């Protein structure tokens, strides 16, 4: 018998989860082993069911794409890591590239047809990448775009950098900005990457030299 692909659906809208489940459960060789609406539910469910694939929407209950991106990174850092296929309504170069950076194997929009979605799931399971035509075009454009300046920080990243300069932990940063510690950690990770450093103290030093703080 062919392998049964075990799959988890993560989306904060129940009707979307139910719609995806109804489509995929009709497909031979695919088994939906669970659904989750939040990042914490997803982490618990993946630990319990050990799926091969996670279908992940970037906009979760907090209404922020950052939470979905952070969850993607946490899922792909596990061993064994599921293949993450982003299924979302948002097409934005930053989101597509950051999802890839966080370990996603594919990125498709929710208006994809069922045949293409199933093909993407099977491709990810084979260890391949899977992008619909829109997100693939974004990736190709990014390859020809000039590298972003190291000072190209978002307003939130500048806030986090200022709090790093005060020596705050991820938990303390979260309390200051009314975000979770996980989201704070995600922003810190992006800062280190954009400033081409590996330590928090180095980020503060680099930021001060660039006049960011």
Give a written overview of the molecule.
Keywords: DNA-binding, Phosphoprotein. This is DNA-binding NarL/FixJ family response regulator. One of its GO terms (biological process) is regulation of DNA-templated transcription. It comes from Modestobacter marinus. GO terms for molecular function: DNA binding. Strand 5, helix 5 and strand 6 form a beta-alpha-beta unit. This protein has 213 residues and is an alpha/beta fold. A 6-stranded parallel beta sheet has the order 2-1-3-4-5-6, sandwiched between helices. The chain is 52% helix and 14% strand. It folds into 2 domains: 140 residues, Rossmann fold (3-Layer(aba) Sandwich), CATH 3.40.50.2300; 56 residues, Arc Repressor Mutant, subunit A (Orthogonal Bundle).
What is the tally of helical segments? Answer: 10
Q: Could you tell me how far the N terminus lies from the C terminus, measured between alpha carbons in angstroms?
A: 60 Å
Low-confidence stretches: none
Measured as a percent range, the helix fraction is 40-55%
Order of helices and strands: EHEHEHEHEHEHHHHH
Q: Mind telling me the C-alpha Rg?
A: 18 Å
Q: How do the helices and strands line up, and which of them pair or pack?
A:
Blueprint: E1 5-10, H1 14-24, E2 30-36, H2 39-49, E3 53-56, H3 65-76, E4 83-88, H4 93-101, E5 106-109, H5 114-125, E6 130-131, H6 133-144, H7 155-165, H8 170-177, H9 181-194, H10 200-209
Parallel strand pairs: 1-2, 1-3, 3-4, 4-5, 5-6
Helix pairs in contact: 2-3, 3-4, 7-9, 7-10, 8-9
